[in-house]
Amino acid sequence: MRFKVLMAAIRKQWIAERTRCQSCGMPVIYDKKYRPGSPYCSYCHDGESFVKEMGLAEMRERVRGLLEARKAPPLIRFYMHWRLATLRRWRKSPGLR
Q1: Tens-digit pLDDT string for the chain (97 aa)
Q2: Is residue 53 part of a domain?
Q3: Domains of the chain: total
Q4: How far apart are CA 67 and CA 86, in angstroms?
Q5: DSSP string of the chain, one letter each residue
Q6: Has residue 62 been placed in a domain?
Q7: Is residue 97 part of a domain?
Q8: For 53, phi and psi rounded to 5 degrees?
Q9: Which domain holds residue 77?
């Protein structure tokens, strides 16, 4: 029984990893206004443009603040700090955006 619970938790996390907003890193399964097929959550992109223009450093501060407010463990905060740079909006190559 514990194995099934563990596998269900791993599967849920795997899906969340695959479907992260490509700007802030939030799993889009938690976005009530998410538009299917969009690489961005409704908090970052309104369908036509980004809600707020900012740099990677500013987004990292914003995400850090949200994670601290939700009392996320330090490992999760570190992971998201690193993970943000891998998302589509923040990649260096313009061809990958």
Answers
A1: 788 888 888 888 787 777 899 999 998 888 999 888 899 999 999 988 999 999 999 999 999 999 999 999 999 999 999 999 999 999 875 544 4
A2: yes
A3: 1
A4: 18
A5: -HHHHHHHHHHHHHHHHHTB-TTT--BGGG-TT--TT-SS-TTTB-SSSBSS---HHHHHHHHHHHHHHTT--HHHHHHHHHHHTTSGGG-S-GGG-
A6: yes
A7: no
A8: -75, 130
A9: 2-92
